[in-house]
Amino acid sequence: MLADYEQVLIAAVICWLLFVTIDVLFRLPEKGGVSGASAIGKKIEADGGDLHGGYMMGNIVSSPDASAGTLLAACGVYVAGLPGGLAAAVLVYIGNRICHDPGYAGTTGAVLASLMVAGLAGIGFAPENFIAGMVIAILTIQGLSHRYASRLLGSLWGWRS
Amino acid sequence: MAELIALYICGVIALFAALRCLIEKDTYLKLPYLNVMNFAVAGIIVLVLNHPLSLLAAVAYFVGSTLEANAIASAKAGGVQND
Amino acid sequence: MIEFLQVILAVIVLLGAFATALSRDPFNKLIALGVMIGGIMPFIVDRGYLDVAVVVALVAPVTTIFVLTLAWRRDEHGA
After folding, report:
1. Cα(A91)–Cα(A83) distance, rounded to whole angstroms?
2. To the nearest whole angstrom, how far is the Cα of A137 from the nearest Cα of chain B?
3. Which helix (H) or strand (E) holds A21?
4. Closest-CA residue to A45 (of A156, A151, A157)
C-alpha cells in the first residue's frame, strides 16, 4: 500500500499517458474540429508553438475528448464503482454529440479509463487519487506553457504520422 | 481521510488556473486556462459530495462549460472572418 | 466543506466578479463570468442541492449563447 502522494503522482503519469495516446491515435492533432479550435491552434502557432499541437489543444477546449472521459470515468468509479464509470461513458457520448463531435475519442477514453481505474482500485489505488492525478495531467498540457506543450504534442504527432 | 489530499490539489489548481485565465490578455489563450479550471471544479463537485447524482451534476457542468467555450471561440473566429 | 476550500472558492468568485465588472471586451467579460459561475457551483453542491446545480450548469451556457448572438447582431448593425 503506497502513500497518498505517491499514488497521486503515479496516477498522474498513467492518466497522462492514457489520454495523450488515445487523442493522438484518434487523430485529434490533424485539424481543428470547429472554427474556434482552428483559431486557437493558429494563435498558439503565432505565439511560437507548434500548429498541430495547437489544434489538439483547441480540440480539447472545444469538445469533451479523452481527457474529459478519463476525468469523468474516475469520478464515476469514485461514486458508484465500475457501473458508475460506464454511466459516465454514456454521458460523455451524449455531451460529445451536443458539441458537434463524432464522440469516438471521448467514449473510448471513458470506457478504457473506467476499466483501468476499477482494476487498479482492486490492488490498493484509491479512485479519488485518479481524479487529482487527472487534474494534474491536464494542468501540464493546458495550463503551464502553451508553447512547450504544443511543441511536445506536435513532435508526438509527427512520430505518429 | 484519503480524499483530503485530492481536494487540496484540486483547489490549488483551480485557483492557479483562474488567476492565469484572468491575467492573460488574449481571448483565445484564455480558453485553455478556463478549461483547466473546469476540470478542477468538476473534480471538486464530485469530491465534496459522494452521491450518484453529483456525477450527473459534474458531467452537466463540464459539458455546459465546454459548450460555452466552444461558442465563445467559434463566435470570435467567425466574426473575425466576416470582417 | 473544509475551510481551505471555502477560502479558495470565495477568492475565485470575487476575482471573477471584479474581472467581469472591469473588463471591456465582451468576450473577456463572458469568460470572466464563466470563472465566477465555476466558483459558485461547489457551494451549491455542498449544501446538497444537486438539482439546482444541474439546472444552473445547463442554464449558464444557454445564457452565454444568447448574449453572444445579441452582441454579434449589435456589432453587425453598429458597424
Report:
1. 12
2. 10
3. helix A4-25
4. A151
d(CA C79, CA C73): 10
Q: What is the pLDDT of residue B83?
A: 38
Please tell me the predicted confidence (pLDDT) of residue A84: 92
> Taking CB atoms and an 8 Å limit, are A72 and B62 in contact across chains?
yes
Q: A142-157 pLDDT, tens per residue?
A: 888 888 999 998 898 8
The per-residue DSSP string of A85-141 comes to HHHHHHHHHHHHHHTT---HHHHHHHHHHHHHHHHHHTTT--HHHHHHHHHHHHIII
Q: Which residues of A touch B61 (CB under 8 A)?
A: none
Which residues of chain C fall short of a pLDDT of 50?
A: 79
Put simply, the answer to whether A64 touches B62 (Cβ < 8 Å) is yes
Phi, psi at A125, each rounded to 5°: -85, 135
Residue ranges in chain A modelled with pLDDT below 50: none
